[in-house]
Write a structure and sequence with these properties.
The chain is built from 27 helices and 20 strands. With about 750 residues, it is α+β, with helices and mostly antiparallel strands. Strands 1, 2, 3, 4, 5 and 6 form a 6-stranded mixed beta sheet that branches. A 5-stranded mixed beta sheet has the order 12-16-14-15-13. Strand 7 and strand 8 form a beta hairpin. About 10% of the residues have low confidence.
Length: about 750
Amino acid sequence: MNQLSFTAEERTHILDGYHALARQLGDSISHNDFERLHKTMAEAAENGFYHRDRFGFNPICRGIDTALALCEQIAPDRDMTVAMMLFNPCRHGFKDLKTIEEEWGEDVARMVGGLIKISDLYAKAPSVQSENFRNLLLTFAQDIRVIILMIVDRYVLMRAINHHPDVQHVNEVALEANYLYAPLAHRLGLYTIKSALEDMSLKYTRRDIYSRIARRLNETKVKRDAYIADFIAPVKNKLEEAGLKFEIKGRTKSIYSIWNKMKKQKNDIDGIYDLFAIRIVLDSEREREKSDCWLAYSLITDMFTPNPSRMKDWISIPKSNGYESLHITVYGPENRWVEVQIRTKRMDLIAEKGLAAHWKYKGIKSEGGLDAWMNNVRDILETADSDGPLQLMRNMRMDVYDKEVFVFTPKGDLYNLPLGATLLDFAFLIHTNIGSHCTGGRVNGKNQKINYRLASGDTVEILTSPQQQPKQDWLTFVKTAKARNKIKATIKEIESRAGDLGREMLQRRCKNRKIEIDEATLSRIVKKLGYKTITEFYTDISTEKLEVNDVIEAFLDMERRANESAERISAETYVLQNQPSEEGTSGGHTGNGEAPDVVIIGEGIKGINYRLARCCNPIYGDDVFGFISAEGVIKIHRHDCPNAAHIRDRYPYRLIKTRWSGKLGDQFGATLRIVGRDDIGIVTNITSIINKEKSTSLRNISIESHDGIFQGYIVVGVSSQSSLNQLIKKLKTVKGVKDVQRS
């Protein structure tokens, strides 16, 4: 490995950073731990386990800067700091996670592992590949501290790339920061970082707009500061007379926020009246917080006329991310509307640094707000359809930014949903089965339909029926991403079950009449009947819109006409459609018109018109036989194919011996049936094993879960039977998996 070279400026930066980090961490990390960390990083650097990133930044400098920002913007934390500093060398193989766990504990190892997973997913371009993007977000959702570290790391990176020459990559990072990391920071209550990310994103992607707003704010600063001072002076006197201890200040709103107001109000910056807000931070005892806030509110609204429509009470019912504050807009001097925020020191600390930073990763149980959101994120990601990463993220953003309504159950439990949420959204929030069988409800004692829009303060009781099932039109009025994704998944599942039933009905009727269904002929019938998909065709059979006997008669008629137009084909008279090879023969054919004893198939074999049967999906290494269809195509079946016995009994004259060539060919499709315990992360573990196999690829996955047990089918691409058997063995070792069988 090439050893990372350091500039003199970088050496100074690292040395100063170590001293600053030691001061910031203080007693949260022992001197011995800090020395061990320093030694580990020095050894990694000496042995070439650090590499500059795409921007050319020194990873040690970036790691120190991220750790410092974590301490300054959120809180000093020993495990998170160590994980951030060790992640880069461990990612390049300096130490494995088992060693990290032995040396630093399970907590650090888990976070390092999460950061490495995210780094690996970024290497696969997650913004383009929806499955990787979903895995990235699922990794976030496993440990909230990984989210915090990634947010802070992006914050540090965004500060460093101003005027970087790689404009395209700067633009990509800036857009992602605004689209992904700013919403996550918002939801975690990290408002300072969220505003900084949004401002820098606007600066890097629309520098002209950013500069114009910044220049105008600077030009009006003196006048704005004078107005704030004039507004604060009488308010300060009133609060002091009431005996309140407080700090009062004016705060100009972020440039990104001002730009949004300009777009929303379709106005220039000079026409935006609320460019700043007055913040009153009270020094109150915990038991007096609410009463002191309302006292300050009363004093201010006595002095200035309030605007009731812009009153926001997040003290009585805090936001789901823990934010508490009273926001009022009053008619101030010079006939201007002024926003005033009233909160206590404790509330202000949470608003600035985020509630999660103070209790979540310290192991203190939350009151349900953030926990519920993280569980909702997992539901959204694990049930999301294949609309793509942008739609997936749009679903999340909706629940992050929309205003909220608060509703109660008859027992008095409080739930929050986005503004505009319906009774059906609430049903899905309670439980998927309740939502799927919801027929309506009683809101404040009155019967309401499932599309009833909820309002804050409503008491809601859900009514269900076992006969009720999700319908397509439900998607037109639900608001939450969880409800939408669950409805889509359930409808797809219902259609799939109906399709499976229809397929079974057709196969059973054909078996009774000793008819082998040829897939190619059936496909022509499906197309002739006007169906766009085979699922729709089978669904109509299951619902008896399409008579099974009519399908069979159409199939027999089509086969009869095909047979009448050609001579009877048998294995003795069949002539392989070979193209002369360099040796004059191909695939075991003699080249003189005689049929071969054995048909050889596989990579490099040309001229033989054969197909792999879909009913059993043979792969390289399986024991197989050939069956000559009415179309003159050899279909390759496994000896243990479900249709093998029927074929041998009815068409023995069409059978032909077959074997594979001595070379491995392209990947073959194989279906595996998996049964196991429905645990969080088990699907991710299964797909991770498949993705790690060099000769294997994941093509499709369909999982159903009932009463804590999941079962489903996975379609993989494999090169041979031996590689498939090896994959099955590995999948059986996954914790929670009970059985894996080839289907």
